[in-house]
Each structure stands twice: as structure tokens, then as C-alpha cells.
Amino acid sequence: MASSEEASSVAAPTAAAAPSEHTLASSSSASTASTASTANATGAQVDRGSGLKVNTGSLAHLLLLGIVFHAVYSFSIFDIYFRTPLVHGMTPVDPPSPPPANRLVLFVADGLRADKLFEDRVSRAPFLQDIVLNRGSWGVSHTRVPTESRPGHVALIAGFYEDVSAVTKGWKMNPVNFDSVFNESRWTWSFGSPDILPMFAEGASDPSKVATIMYSPEFEDFAEKDAAKLDTWVFDKFDEFMKEAKSNATLASQLRSDKVVLFFHLLGLDTNGHGHRPNSKEYLGNIAVVDAGISHITKKLEEFFGNDEKTAYIVTADHGMSHRGNHGDGHPDNTMTPLVAWGAGIKRSKLVRKSKTRIRKRQDSAAASDTAGDEKEAEAVTLTESSAAPLPTTTSAIDPSDPFAQVPWNLDDVVRNDVNQADIAPLMSTLIGVPFPMNSVGELPITYLDVSHDHRAEAALGNAVQILRQFLVKEDTKRRHELFFKRFAPLVRHEELLDEIRLLISKARDTTFELTPKRITETYGRAIVKSTALAELAIEGLRYYQTYDWLFLRSIVTVGYVGWIAYCILFVLKNYITPEVVLTTWPSQGTVPEPKKGKNSVRFSVKEKGTSFLDSQIDRAALGVFVVFSALLLIKRSSPIYYIYVAFPVYLWSNAFKERKYFFDLLPSSVYDEGWWLNFAKCFIYVAALELLVYSYFQREILSPCLIAGGVLWPETTPDTFKKKNWAILLVWKFFCVVLSVFTLLPVEYNEDMRLVNAGAVLIIGSGIYAAFALPTYMASTSPTKAKPGVPLTIVLQLLIIVASVLVVNDTSRRLANKEGLPSMNQTVSWAMLASSVLVPVLDGLGGSQHYLLRLVVIYLAFAPVFILLSLSYETLFYFCFCMTAMAWLVVERHIYHEVDILKANQDTIALWKKTDGIIRQPTRFRPLKPNDLWTATVFLCLINVGFFGTGNIASVSSFSLESVYRFTTTFQPFVMAALLIFKLWVPLFFLSAVFGVITRSLELPSFSLLLVVLSTTDVMTLNFFFLVRDSGSWLEIGTTISHFIIASAFIVFQILLFTVGHFLVGRISLPQPEKKRL
Question: Which pLDDT score, from 0 to 100, does residue 57 have?
């Protein structure tokens, strides 16, 4: 509804003669356009203006199209960079026999960071310390993003990297639908969490051979004093299991068979990390609990099997943990996990004299030097993994971004063997003699094996053949589905490479060659080197075919985004700028003269869209293009979503070409306008602002100078008389812009500080009390009756809820800090307050039209309780300052529009009226968009980015702490927790969207006009991020660029939802106009 209709109704005087400035300034924009031409007192013809008529159906179609388009195109990044490389049709490859071990014991300490275990010479874990120093091998296992439990366990046990979207498949009962070590084993018993165990049991080809012993999900409570009980539960259940094995002959026989796996998933560290953070005594103490449990299990098993030396042990983790108690992104704290192995088939620790930890070279070189009997450790080179999606590439021993490379672990006298997480799967297969998982892309870490030279060589060859078979299946599939197929050149002669390796192994075995022992080991070493090289080539080949369609997909996506920009801009031109445009001005009040046609006046009318011959030809051409691309996709056997990727640009560009006349009509008119260069300069500045916002995703600090510059410089562009009259309002705007700029300079990682939470709550309560008493007075001053209403009861109720929320959050925080758990009463009250944040403004809005300031205060206070409950530190201060800045922006915009823009427009109208022959037009409900409105859109975009980055970095999963959601739930409910964090992020933006809606009405613009300006241009940012996506470098860089693109692409959907919610929250409001004086 137009703001003019929501203001007090004032009759518009009929134009009599040449209108004066006073007449134009005092006429109400609420006047209803006459339904027919009438004669005024002087006989002048009054012609009804056509106004801005926006087809609501077209608008809804555009918004729905924008949501669907960006939702679909957001997933294009996964089809390009993280499409699953899973292939089928291979035959399994067995490692050499007999295997060194009959059974494998795998311990996965969920969330264990490498540095927390290894620092200070593994002092926190005495048993594992003895293993590292004397009895086994150790190193760092490099995980991949997303550093979550499901993809981490899949990489460990299947040697296969799921695409990033696999994390959204959840935990619980989602089966792993590809081969794994557990699936290839004869028997597997798993102990631990229900979040992981069912995946591998349900995904096995024979689920009966994978047994699960697990606790209930409710057992995982982040509010527990010490979650180490999750691990002690596992150890206790193992004791019961072994006790049963002594009396159960069938179970004992199964345990004593070969190819047996015992899997222990230890969740205590992850839970303590989330609940207390990795530097807490609970987390560090849990390491000792895990160490003691591993020692206990080892002794039990050795006793049961009579120390037969046929048991291999591996200790590792699925992911690490950030300092804030989170994981998910590519930060080294999350990607660096420990690996300790000992027992049957595992090489014992090797001591060196150098002062630096010795790290093995790539496994091929290491294998060659080991088999040659060379005791000198080679200079380290990080194991590089070339799989379906790239790993960080580096030429040094440790990734330069690896903080553990320089940390003094006091292990510089023990050889360290780093691996990639997927490498552990072929290692386990080799140890117990089960086929390599058929989809594994792990490279066998030869440096961990203590077996004969022949066994090593055969194992390396088997690993290479297993990966090569995946490559050949993928190559054959691609060949059959490509019109112009180009093979991966290095493996065109792969059979010859295999023959060379087999010949070397045969030569080393054949005694007829009479090779010396040294020459035999060297020959085996060359075979291992060639096998490793072949495996790497096969992985490169898999990646080659994985990225085969990148150019095609990138081109389609780019054309699609540019097509959306063109389509949306033309919609804005057609509906909000070009209808009956008078390019000099468009006053919103008073009578608006229509200029004469002539060379000194510029005016045009837009004809209705027709179905011309050219338009029909465009439809035919679009259909032809889609058919051609569909045929190509059909031959390629592409995914159905590829057809949608193609359909969007075809549809968008065909419609954009049919609306081309609106652009070609506006362009010459803009050029003839005397201020055309200024308008183009404003557009250029707007695009530059978008690019600056792109940079803010990488450096949020850039938003601080933007806020300061906008806050200080914008008021200086207004007339001196305006600044003198409204100095107080402008001072408030400048003050809050400067204060708000501080928050984007603060660290995103912070500990709980209830003093800051309470300080922000006090400011919110104080502002609410001030509003409760000041609003009635202000509302009375703008009311025609001057009647002063009483104190709004809704605000009083909200203040009481806020006070209650402060009491609850302090009590809950104290209890959680004392490890007393989350009281059910506090939890119930917290959820009730969350519900009230939605219900109160909705119910309050049912009472009819409200003053816009009262309505905004109600919305501001409604969301305050839940924001307080979800705050840990300075967030409440940010919420107060952010909302005050938004309110100040609204007031300044309203005053500038009604006291500067309208009067200037009226002055221009008088000059224009003098050129007419007396034909005038009645006022219309809305005005068209002008270049000056780009400033409003710029401020909105700046503030929405400040809302995103003010208390964290949404591009990093680890920048948000789960600690705040413990006021609502402490049990492990990932989707509920994520929803609460997202809601916390959205709360300031809900208020901003409400303010933006009021500004749109105050500027007498159609409801969605300013939003569409934003929607039609922010994909400039999306395209930036699309081309900034990296597939090389550190995983932190790769993960960050991917998340930037997804956020930017989903930003359109987010804005539409935000504006819709804001429009709904604002509801019916009255907008009394500020007092207008001549400047």
C-alpha cells in the first residue's frame, strides 16, 4: 500500500493557474487520480497520469523465477568442482597373500587434533607415546573439506572422497552405498556412536557380517560435565563383548578367523570439544581417557589371542577441531589429524639424529630408498593427492599453512610419515588381506609397512591396478558418450607400463638372473616407484575425465547469470522507470505538467509489448538452441539438471531480446538528458560498491571505512539549510555509523562474556523504555487531532519478556559453566521466547494501521529476547547498534526526500510547466526509480553485509560457536542447532528488511522496486565469486572460495525471503510526512 494512502488524508487542491512553489509543496500525494479528464477553474485540461502500473502476476513470476534459478544454479558448483567420481563395473583387486595380520583394530577418536595428541612428546597419552617412540609408526593424516564425521569416516574406511554435499545426507541411518574395508572383511564388530555405525552396517553387501554395539542418541549431551563417559561406555561394552566371547564358541570362532575388523568410534573428544573447546581440561583430559582405553583393549586382545602377533592397530581421527569448538571448513586445525599404527605388518619407529623431524618423501621415493637399504631419510615432500577433487599442492615436506610444522612437539628424533586420509583404507586392506575398496583413490603408504620386498612390490602394484581399473571404466564411459573424445595421453599405453612393473618383479624373483641381494632390493624398489607413478597417473586420469566438461559447464553458468542480470534489469526498466517518463524530474506531489513535444523537451511513452515477427523468430531460435543443446546432453548421458542449466539462459536471453525496446528507448533519452554523465557516474559508483563488497568477504574489516565514509560524507551532500535544521538527526546517524564500524574490526572468535551480553541487554531495555514514553508524544505531534496516546502496552510486555530473557540466559550460562546441565524449565522458557519473537509482532499487527516508528520498535524489541539468549559476548551490543543505525538511516532518508528531493523536483516542475500549453497531469500513487535511488540500494547492501559479518564470518563454518545454542538444546541435533545459528544470523536482517520496506514506502516507490534493483545487480558479485573459485591451493582457500560462491548465489533467494518477511512484519502502517519548508 502506498505511503500516501497511509498518511492523514488531505485533499489536494485543484490547479488554477501557473502553480506556485507553495502549491506544489503542500499538495498531498494521497490525492486519487481522476477517472476522467475534467476542467479546472481556469479551463486548463487535467489529464489523468498513467502512473506506474506493475503487473503483480509478472512480479510474482520474476520473484519465483529468481528463487528457482538461483537455487538451481547454486548447486552448479558441485557439478563442476565436486561431482561424485563414483564409478561401477570394476572387479576387485586382492593384495598379496598371506597378509601380515589376521585382524585389524581401528580406533577413530572423533574430533582429535594432531597437535593436542603429539605436542610435548605425546605426554598426554603415555601408551601411545611408547608406540610412537618405540613400537610403531606415526604421522599426520590430512583430511579434506568438509571436515565432518560422515565424509571423514567414508574416506578412512572406503578410501573414497564423497562430494561436499554428502554432509547434507546427514548422519544416523544413511548407508554408505559403495565398497569399504568393512564390506570386504569377513567379520566386523563396531562400537560407539549411532551417528556413524549404522552407515557402514546398512551399506554393507551383507549387513549381518557388520555388527553394531552403540548407545542411544540422547547419551550425547554437550552440557555434560565430561563427555568422556561416551568413550568409557565403549570400553565397558568391549569388556562385556570379550567376556561373552569366552563363553560363546561361535563368537570366539568368528573372532579367531582371518580378515576380522574391530572398529571403535570414540565420540567423547568431539563432544567435549564442542561443549568445552579443545583447550579445556575436559578435552585434554579426554585424551588420557582414550589412551587408557586403547591400552586396555590392546591388552585384552593380546590375552585373548595368546600374543600371536597377528593383530594390527591404527589410531586416527575423522577430523580436527577449531579453537571455537567447531569443524567443517579447511582450517588446518580441522584438517590435520593424528595417525599412529603398530602391530602386525607395521614398521617400528626409526630414530634419527637430525634436529628436525624427518618426514618421508613421496612414498615411491621412500619405498625405493627403504628397499635399497638406504638408512638416510630423504628430504620431505608432502604426499600429494590427485583425486576427483584436488588436494592442496605443495613442493615442501609440510604444507606451508600447516601450523604443526613449526610447533615444538619434541618429536624431532622420530621419523614422521604423513599421509592423506584416503591412504589409510588401502593400508588396512593390505594389512589383513582383503580386496582394496573398489572406489578407493588412496595411495598405499609403503613407509608404514614392515613386510618383505616382494610383498611391498605386489601391494603397490595391486593398489595401482585397483585405481587404474576405475580410470579405465571412466574412460570407456566418457568415450561412449562424447562426440569429440580426447583420451588422457599419459595412459594411452598403460598396458606397457603394467608389463614393465611385472617384469621388474619377476626379474627380482627369478634366481636365474643371479642378482645380488642389493640388486634384488633395487629392482623391487624400481617396481614400487613405477607402481606408485602409475597410481598417480591413474588418479590424474580420473581427475582429467572428472573435469572434462568444466569449460562447457562454466560457460553455461556464466551465460545464465548474465542472462538473469539482463532479464531483471529490463523488467525494472519496463515497470519502474520508462512508463510516461519525464526525464528532467518526476515530482511526487502537486500537479505534474506534461511537456510539449519538441527538440527542447524529452519525453517518450512505451508501447505495450507486441508479438512482432521478430519476436516470434526469437522464440523459434531459442527453441532451436535448446533442442541442439539437449541433443548434445542426451549423447553425453548428462544428468537431468544439466538440461535445466541450459534451459535458464535460453529462456532468460530470449525474453531479454524481446524486451530490448525498453533499453533502446531509454538509452537515447539518457544521453540527451543534461545530467546524463552524472547518472552514469552514479551507476559506476554503484558497481564499484558491489566490487568492494566482494572484497569484504575476504577482509570484513573493509566494511568499517565504508560505514564511516557513508555516515560522514552522505549528509555533506545535502543543502546547508537542511543540515542546519536536522543537525541532531544527522549527528545520530554519524554516531551510530562510526560505532557500528567497530564491530567488523573485532575478532570473530571470542569466549563467553556475560558482562557484554548484559551491557547490550541494558541498552536494548533502555531504548525500549525511552521509546515507550517518547513515541506517544511524537505520534501526537504528527497526528491531525494532536491527541496523545498512552504508553503502548505491547512495548511494556516486550520489555518484561526481555528482562526475563536476561535472567534466564544468566542463570543458564551459570549452570552450564558449573556443569549442572540445562534445566528443563530454562529450556522451556527459552523456546517460548523464541516463539514469542514471531507471535508478538504478528498479533500486534492485527490491530490495524500503526505509526511506522511504533511498528518498527515492536519488531526491534520482539527479536531482542531470542538474540540475547543466543549471544555469547558482544552480539547484543551489535544488535542494539545495528538497529539504531538502521532506524537513523530511515529517518534521514525520509527527511532528505521530503525536505530536499521533493522541493527540488517541484522547482524543476515549475520550469517545465512554463514550456507546456496548460495540459497538466494529476498526481500518481508512485514515482519511478531515479539514479539517486542507487544510493539507497547501496546502503542496504552495505548494511546487509555488516549484518552478516558483524559478529562472525559466514564464509567459515568454524566462525560460529555452538555454545550459544546450548541455551536451547544440549543433545546432538545438528539440523536444529544449525537452524538456531541461522536464525540468530537472520534476526538483525529481519529488522533491516522491515526498515528497508518502510523506506521504500517513504520514498513513494512501488513495494518491490528497490529490491529489484538489488536483485538485478548483485549477481555481479556472484560472477566474481564464480570465477574466484579455486581447485588448488590449501583446503582453507578452496573451501572458502566455494562457500563464497554458494553464499552469493543464494543471496538472491535470501533477499527475497528477507524482504517478504519484512514486508509481512511491517504490515499496515501510517507514514505522516515530516514538516516541509522551503529551502
Answer: 65
Expressed in angstroms, the distance from the first to the final Cα of the chain is: 30
Q: CA 59, 62, 65, 66: dihedral to nearest 10 degrees? A: -110
| Contact status, residue 965 vs residue 981, Cβ threshold 8 Å | yes
Specify burial of residue 186 (Cβ count, 10 A radius: 0-12, 13-18, 19+).
middle
| Distance from chain centroid for Cα 666 | 39
Distance CA 267, CA 247 (A): 30
d(CA 448, CA 1056): 55
The cell numbers describing 782, all together, are 504528527
Element (H, E) at 466: helix 453-480
- Rounded to whole angstroms, how far apart are CA atoms 255 and 522? 39
Q: What is residue 1002's three-state secondary structure?
A: helix
pLDDT digits (tens, 9 = 90+) for 337-389: 999 999 999 999 877 655 444 455 444 444 444 444 433 333 333 333 333 33
- Residue 157 exposure: Cα atoms within 13 Å on the Cβ side: 37
82: its cell numbers: 565436486
Peptide bond into 435 cis (omega under 30): no
Residue 24 pLDDT greater than 90, yes or no: no
Compute CA distances 935 → 697, 714, 1014, 1035, whole Å. 21, 9, 11, 38
Average pLDDT over residues 587-598: 40
- The candidate with the shortest Cα–Cα distance to 111, out of 447, 337, 349, 389, is 337
Query: Model-level pTM?
Result: 0.70
Q: Rounded to the nearest 5°, which phi and psi values hold at 609?
A: -65, 130
Whether the predicted pLDDT of 652 surpasses 90: yes
Report residue 980 as a C-alpha cell. 538456531
pLDDT confidence band for 925 (50 / 70 / 90): low
C-alpha cell at 952: 562472525
Mean pLDDT to the nearest integer, 1043-1067: 79
Do the Cβ atoms of 16 and 920 come closer than 8 Å? no
Query: Alpha-carbon distance 512 to 842, whole Å?
Result: 91
Q: Dihedral sign, CA of 1003, 1006, 1011, 1013?
A: negative
Report the alpha-carbon distance of residue 519 to residue 1016 in Å, rounded. Answer: 70
For residues 646 and 963, the model is more confident at 646
User: Residue 379 class from Cβ within 10 Å (0-12 exposed, 13-18 middle, 19+ buried)?
Assistant: exposed
Q: Residues 993-1002: pLDDT tens digits?
A: 899 989 988 8
* Nearest alpha-carbon partner for 934 in 874, 1003, 851: 1003
Counting beta carbons within 10 angstroms of the beta carbon of residue 412, is it exposed (0 to 12), middle (13 to 18) or buried (19 or more)?
Answer: middle
Dig out the grid coordinates for 607 from the structure: 508501447
Contact partners, residue 151, CB within 8 Å, separation at least 6 = 144, 161, 162, 164, 166, 167
Where are the extended beta strands (E) located within 406-534? 419-420
Per-residue model confidence (pLDDT) at position 953 = 54
Helices (H) and strands (E) in the chain, counts: 38, 16
CB 886 within 8 A of CB 993: no
Contact between residue 821 and residue 813 where contact means Cβ atoms under 8 Å apart: no
**Residue whose C-alpha is closest to residue 654's, from 758, 538, 570, 778:** 570
Supply the Cα-derived Rg of the chain in whole angstroms: 35
Phi, psi of 1066 (to 5 degrees): -65, -45
Distance CA 170, CA 548 (A): 30
Q: Which residues of 908-934 are buried (b: 16+ CB within 10 A; e: fewer)?
A: ebbebbeeeeeebbbbbbbbbbbbebb
Cis peptide before 13 (omega within 30 of 0): no
Alpha-carbon span 366 to 377, nearest angstrom: 8
Question: What is the reported pLDDT for 188?
Answer: 96
